[in-house]
Amino acid sequence: MPGPARRPRRRLSQPREQVLAAAMTTIAEEGLDRLTMAGLGREVGMSSGHILYYFGTKDELLLQTLQWSEEQLGAQRRAELARRVPARARIDALVDLYLPDGPRDPRWTLWLEVWNRSQNADDATRERQLDLELAWHRDLVALLVEGASKGELRPVDAERFATRTRALLDGFGTHLVVGLPGLSRDEVLGHVRDFLDESLRTPRQDGQDEYGNSLSE
Predict the structure, then answer these.
(1) Is residue 71 predicted with pLDDT exceeding 60?
(2) pTM
(3) Which of 63, 116, 203, 217 is deepest in the core (most CB within 10 A)?
């Protein structure tokens, strides 16, 4: 998603939240390389030692910033998924929120950095990372089940299908955020829509009855 424009700093309820918001703003506006403890301290009026008191390490700061960012996006996702529209329309909305807006998308840039830094992470850290993934997974599974129960979508193994779909989105998303030439966001959305159409369209949506006979005959 595009970085937020700089605006007057609002007062946040807790110093920790101030640091996380400032970290995300720095990533969006200046890039991950410019994110330092000293710089964050200047931004929020704290010493770097004070920030280390809250987070301990930069790796922990980055993970908590990602968690905070996902909480903000999660509220937007829940609002989209609560709309009274067909399940497929809400799946499309989930896909749109999931994918980066383009190269150097700050949320995806942070996500990739956290994953890269966590190759030797402990089990507790892995569980926190998994929780971020499962929030999207559970929402997609629920939509697949709901759509099938209402006859809007072809029945599938929802857990298995959601896992494969997220892998597809992760692959395309990585290409987009690193700016791989020859692949635009609109093209990615088109590929994903085609995949969903081919996988989830019901026989009647294909112009066939439940036995595979053409409804136009």
Answers:
(1) yes
(2) 0.83
(3) 63
Q: Identify the residue whose tokens are 């110093």.
A: 15
Q: What is the pLDDT of residues 18-47, one digit of tens each?
A: 899 999 999 999 988 889 899 998 989 988
Residues linked to residue 26 through DSSP beta bridges, in sequence order = none
Most distant CA pair in the chain, distance: 76
Residue pLDDT, tens place only, 5-21: 333 344 434 688 889 99
The proportion of the chain whose per-residue pLDDT surpasses 70, expressed as a percent, equals 87
Contact residues for 121 (Cβ-Cβ < 8 A; gap 6+): 129
Name the DSSP letter for residue 214: B
Structure tokens at 139: 């929402």
| 96 token code pair | 């749109």
Q: Which amino acid is at 182?
A: G
CA–CA separation, 122 vs 29, rounded Å? Answer: 31
Q: What's the rounded Cα separation, in Å, for the pair 140 and 136?
A: 6
**Phi, psi (rounded to 5 degrees) for 187:** -65, -40
